[in-house]
Amino acid sequence: MTRTSRYSPEVRERAVRMVLEHEREHNSQWSAIVSIASKIGCTPETLRKWVRRTEIDTGRRGGLTSDDRARVKNPAASCGALKGKNLKG
């Protein structure tokens, strides 16, 4: 089951970039998130998740990257590729 996103990847990227650029102008990252979320029309929690995911993917914050999460979620895809190589050799 695939989810369709209400927000385009471009909107997400721009909103995250705005938070990261303007967080120094606010008392906390959360206050920057609340301010920018109201401007783009999403909830602060949604924007906070986008920011966290970007921070992890860029190495700014610890955790599993999106690529690692995909590998953990679907190990059969990577195992299938390995099995195919072993059968040919």
- In CATH, the architecture is Orthogonal Bundle
Beta-strand segment tally: 0
Beta-sheet strand percentage? under 5%
Continuous helix count: 5
CATH superfamily: Winged helix-like DNA-binding domain superfamily/Winged helix DNA-binding domain
CATH class: Mainly Alpha
From the alpha carbons, calculate the radius of gyration and give it in angstroms.
18 Å
Pairing-aware structural class of the strands and helices? mainly alpha
**CATH level 3 topology:** Arc Repressor Mutant, subunit A
What's the pLDDT, averaged over the residues?
Answer: 85
| Main beta-sheet strand count, sense and barrel state | none
> What general form does the structure show?
elongated
How many structural domains? Answer: 1
Which consecutive residue ranges, at least 5 long each, have pLDDT under 50?
none
Element-level helix/strand string: HHHHH
Summarize the structure.
The protein has 89 residues and is mainly α.
How does this structure look, described?
The chain is mainly alpha-helical and 89 residues long. 70% of the residues lie in helices and 0% in strands. The chain has helices at residues 9-22, 29-40, 44-57, 66-73, 75-88. Helix 2 packs across helix 3. The model has no long low-confidence stretch (mean pLDDT 85).
